[in-house]
Fold:
Amino acid sequence: MTNSGISDKLTLVHSDIRGPVYEEALRMQNAGKKVLKLNTGNPAAFGFAMPESVKEALTRGMDGAVAYCDLRGMPESRRAILSYHTGKGIKDLEMDDIFITNGVSEGVQMVCLSYLSYGDEILLPSPNYSLWENCTHLAGAKPVFYQCREENQWMPDPEDIRSKVTAKTRAILIISPNNPTGAVYSKEVMEEIIAIAREHDLAIFSDEIYDRLVMDGLKAISPASLAPDLLTVTFNGLSKSHIVCGFRCGWMVFSGPKEKRLPLEEAVTKLCSMRLCSNALAQLVVPAALEDPESTREMLVPGGRLYEQRETTCSVLEKIEGISFVKNRAAFYLFPKLDKERFGIHNDQQFALDLLHAKNLLIIPSSGFGWKGNDHFRIVMLPEKEVLRSAMEDLGDFLSDYKQK
Ligand SMILES: Cc1ncc(COP(=O)(O)O)c(C=O)c1O
Structure:
């Protein structure tokens, strides 16, 4: 227990996406200022609408979703998920390998609690999305960060991963497409990571929440399809691809050798039974959503909102002196780099606060993603392109004479 009477399990838990800079933005809004909040990947908050297919499925099936359902999720929905992931090359899946959860977020908590013991280590990417680090802390385990290399399109560095494996390492996390970098990992890199997992008998956790939001003709590869011999848990959901973050609709797929998969599934089943079932209304729409990839695809091609918003943001940013970036190939995040010398930045949270105060513009500093350099920040490219254009121009204007004190 800490001095405040709160469990010390929470001491290391943080969420800067909704952290101190965000709190300051809320305070400014409450005081009557109009703040453009580019902090969360929440498409519906920026005028994106859920597809008609999803809306229809919801209204059609509503009455069927008032009872508790199977603790793993409704059979029809799990069947659709099974077929989706089989289509992505994962072999030998059975219905009981699929668990529907209240978002990927709940699934990650369940797997970390079930798989990691006190003192175990898990290899997480840096920069990283804080959910994974937080769930690791709550499980009493230790996150160990491997580097993704900006100079290599933000791909993970397999040598760095290898150098960080210890006798306590239990799993490697892959997030592709990635938050916050928007990188889509190549098959070669995936295979190198899998080889390390194979050498050391590690599980692979694969967070694929952005796998349907890929641009530029690329494809998101599922590591489980390349590693049928390894225990793999694949996480996915509808929050982003079908604009239903609020539904809390995610799932996990367990694959790999039965002797490894079944004990973990059994442990996760215990946790699922404690919460009876996940939101049944949200589960209703899964088959319709997975049969409707078109509404997602439309946003990602020239003329589509996500594509055009990215292009506009990048076209303004590339003219700002002191900023460089790797263009995202998926999702709606960009993780630009600031020239630290030029701007004298020693505290990136202060940079974010200074920008917020000067331009009413909220971004998240890189320290919120476990990035040590104090020299990056994340932009969420979800507002309409003209709003983004003007926000990036404001950023350029702010940086034209910025020097941190
Ligand atoms: C990489 C990643 N995983 C998981 C989540 C959470 O997904 P869900 O809404 O399904 O809980 C997010 C949300 O931003 C994310 O970026």
In short: The two ends are 38 Å apart (CA to CA). Residues 38 and 380 are 5 Å apart (CA to CA).
